[in-house]
Amino acid sequence: MAKKENRIQVILECTEHKTSGMPGTSRYVTTKNKKNTPERIELKKFNPILKRMTLHKEIK
Questions:
Q1: Does domain 7-58 have CATH number 2.20.28.120?
Q2: Domain residue ranges in the chain
Q3: Would you say residue 5 has pLDDT above 90?
Q4: Residue 48 contacts by C-beta under 8 Å, 6 or more apart in sequence?
């Protein structure tokens, strides 16, 4: 029987883009270890639409 993986893929979505009123959205796909970080992650990533670093939060 195969072991259950601890690493899962998560999607990070920009939080500041929704309030800007511009069309489109900025999303990143990354992995996290669900054993070490069970809570949702927040990272500062580059938003190419707004052309600056913004806060990206994990979505379901």
A1: yes
A2: 7-58
A3: no
A4: 26
Helix, strand, or coil (residue 60): coil
CA 32, CA 56: separation in Å to the nearest integer? Answer: 14
44: phi then psi, degrees, rounded to nearest 5: -90, 120
What sign has the CA pseudo-torsion 4, 7, 11, 12?
A: positive
Torsion of CA 14, 23, 53, 8, to 10 degrees: 30
Per-residue pLDDT of 7-49, as tens digits, reads: 999 999 999 987 777 888 899 999 999 999 999 999 999 999 9
Task: Specify the pTM.
Answer: 0.81
